[in-house]
Amino acid sequence: MTASTSPAVPDTADTADRQQRIEQIRQAAHRIRRNALDMGEVQGQGYIGQALGVADVLAVVYADQLRFRPEDPHWADRDRFLLSIGHYAIALYAALAEAGIIPVEELETYGSDDSRLPMSAMASYTPGTEISGGSLGHGLGVATGMALGLRLQGNPARVYDLLSDGELDEGSTWEAAMSCAHHGLDNVTAIVDMNALQADGPTTGVLRTEPVTDKWRAFGWHALRVDGNDVAALVDAFDEARAHRGSPSVVICDTRIGHGVPLLAAREKAHFMRVEEHEWQIARDQLQEGLAR
């Protein structure tokens, strides 16, 4: 989808179309969150807070922006979505199920022996997973090489790379950022999940990365920063990133751990959550109540 220029006075039909578009994404985000909760219950623990926080971003990507064929995950002209944050696999699988790339019924095998859905994303196991996760800081380098290769082939596909604010601590991320801008790879959109939390504590206490937007711009990127749990703001940002030419784009998304489920959003230790057996249904009920509001 390519962003278009809006008239000074929005047309009623255009406004209705935009509202329908946003509502469809909002419903997709709800299902992604519900899928993530169902998977989390299988293990009783995991990176469920991040999945709830980034669900709106993934809904915009998979329900609105990404070109793909669910029945053919290896379609040559598909847009590539890279999960640089391997431990966010639970969020990716929830989105892949929403996109029809993997069956929703398969989510109940999450993290089990012989499952195609391991707890850390592996390209060799899961349809629609472009790279294997693990050590952080590698995704943007892969995205840069992939985008350069696509350009040399004359392939119009775009590359999206989801990375965490913690990955901004990695020097390899900034080396890739320099290279991507140097080659003018405007077929790349980086997405930074700024949830302000890492394994060792709040991001600000681990290593100060602000001013994040200014840093990306200094590295030659078209940088946009939005509320990552505001679907309308995300749509505008991704449309702008897709339309931009001459340099790569980055959408910096301020998200909230556990968003949509107050029970989990209030957890003090939220990077890797242990959720009690009776709490999963409470979480689903709170999620449904939030959708109705």
Spell out the key features of this protein:
293 residues, alpha/beta, Rossmann fold, five-stranded parallel beta sheet, two-stranded antiparallel ribbon, 10 helices, 9 strands, 13% strand, disordered N terminus
Give the SSE map.
Layout: H1 12-43, E1 45-46, H2 48-65, E2 80-83, H3 89-98, H4 139-153, E3 159-164, H5 171-182, E4 188-194, E5 197-198, E6 201-202, H6 203-206, H7 212-218, E7 222-227, H8 231-243, E8 249-254, H9 262-265, E9 273-274, H10 279-292
Parallel strand pairs: 2-3, 3-4, 4-8, 7-8
Antiparallel strand pairs: 1-9, 5-6
Helix pairs in contact: 1-2, 1-3, 1-10, 2-3, 2-8, 4-5
Protein name: Transketolase subunit A
InterPro entries: THDP-binding (IPR029061), Transketolase_N (IPR005474)
GO molecular function: magnesium ion binding
Provide an overview of this structure:
The chain has 293 residues and is an alpha/beta fold. It has one domain (12-292): Thiamin diphosphate (ThDP)-binding fold, Pyr/PP domains (Rossmann fold), CATH 3.40.50. 44% of the residues lie in helices and 13% in strands. The chain has ten helices and nine strands. It has helices spanning 12-43, 48-65, 89-98, 139-153, 171-182, 203-206, 212-218, 231-243, 262-265, 279-292, and strands at 45-46, 80-83, 159-164, 188-194, 197-198, 201-202, 222-227, 249-254, 273-274. The strands form three sheets. A five-stranded parallel β-sheet has the order 2-3-4-8-7, sandwiched between helices. Strands 1-9 form a two-stranded antiparallel sheet. A hairpin with a 2-residue loop joins β5 (197-198) and β6 (201-202). α1 (12-43) packs across α3 (89-98), α1 (12-43) packs antiparallel against α10 and α2 packs parallel to α3. The radius of gyration is 18 Å and the shape is globular. The model is unreliable at 1-9 (pLDDT under 50).
